[in-house]
Amino acid sequence: MFAPGVALAVRDDAEEGTPTMVAESLQGLLDATDDLVGHFRASKVGKHVYPVVPAEFTNWQAEQRAWHTGGALFDQSHHMVNYGPDAVKLVSDTGIGSVADSDVDRAKQFTATGHDGNVLGDGILCREAANKFTFVGRIPTAHWLDFNAETGGYDLETRIDHRSPSRPTGPVSRELHRFEVQGPLAWQLLEKINGGPIEQAKFFQMGYMNVEAVRVRTLRHGVAGQPGLELWGPYEMPGRIGDAILAAGEEFGILSVGSRAYPSVSGEVGWIPSPVPPIYTGDAMADSRKWLPADGFEAIGSITGSYESDRIEDYYVRPRDLGHGKLIKFDHDFIGRDSLEALNPAEQRRKLTLAWNADDLARVHRSLFTPEGPVYKFFDLPNATYGTANFDSVLKDGAPVGVSTSTCYSSNERRALSLAALAPGVEVGDEVELVWGEPGGGDRLVVLEPQSRAPSAPPSAPRRTPPTRGPATRAHAGTRPEFRSGLRRTH
Fold first, then answer.
1. Strand pairing of 81-83 and 119-129?
2. Within 10 A of 59 (CB to CB), how many other CB atoms are there?
3. Which fold does the domain 60-79+167-262 belong to in CATH?
4. Averaged pLDDT score across all residues of the chain
């Protein structure tokens, strides 16, 4: 039974020979779905894919270490959306941060919230000219900007340079290439390529440099606490730029980083990249749901992890959950401002990093080789996040204190790390438990084999580790035994 007023198309199902109703918008899909969380739990879409770039150029451990010990080259040309809105007002109206100090040739962290103050997404906003911005981030935020640009009465032009296909079947073309050079030897390498000194710009300062007599745009960035640069330019020349960087970097031991190691950067630097956008509920978001397609990212994404709730609202996150509280500036009107102003910061969750108990993680892997025992949820290396959005329950003294949103293994720290949003009162060094497993043993997932769960080992002694991380962890309660892992907190 479909709800009245739902926008649906009728198509002929060639295999069955009978007409099939297909929703034409996200709203149509929601109206035809009784269990929205179940819809995302059963999605066939797995983890976020980093397309085109090979999984490994050498091996993922060496590539992880490269951004700490020498130099690393990231090819970021394919997995992010480039978006060019041409108006200060749109950026101000949709972002929690101030644009009052947004000078030309500067970039800012851009975080957008819905009308309820929950986070739609974030990314990097580069001001290339007085009235020209380029946003680099994931598609829900670009869609939100595009929707507001189209329906908000702005006098501007926009365009989206969509990310490359996850499984390209032919040549790939985009407007821009993006490379990033990072590591303690990155600046020496960059100045060698440039043919002379490069001004030590402040963080997020934009500029130019030369690569093989080609003038390219730069953005001062830093992954390993060392100065590095992003370089971008017309997509026609990515091979030439990348090859020039690698050739010049041979004496510095620079390594290309593949798509297997690359996502683990976020675990080391503390970036939570993919919140569930708060577009599925609330009358204020209804027009955006009607505007979004029924087959877009917002409709087909996946939710994984041990946290369970039937309410999609319980998967939304606030800016402070992601560590973005310091970005909120109430010096301008923006979507979600009233909701955020009504919150008491002292009562909000905050972002922390959990450092796993090594014995617990070893027990998870040992279960693969113990025929007579349970098999726990597989911990893939280096990234053990299996959906476009992941939520694992975190407990302290048996009571829920928050959720973990992503998990990886770091060769640099020689431990597993999880980024979490935890309640006030959980302090750096506290022991917590992260529930490691899927509801129902993961029987609805195609990206994981069904698993069991088991009693937890005592959590390890907490300790602080750079760059500051989070507490201890455990597993999920359900019909099967469940694994509980001790973590310690650092961020």
1. unpaired
2. 13
3. Gyrase A; domain 2 (3.30.1360)
4. 82
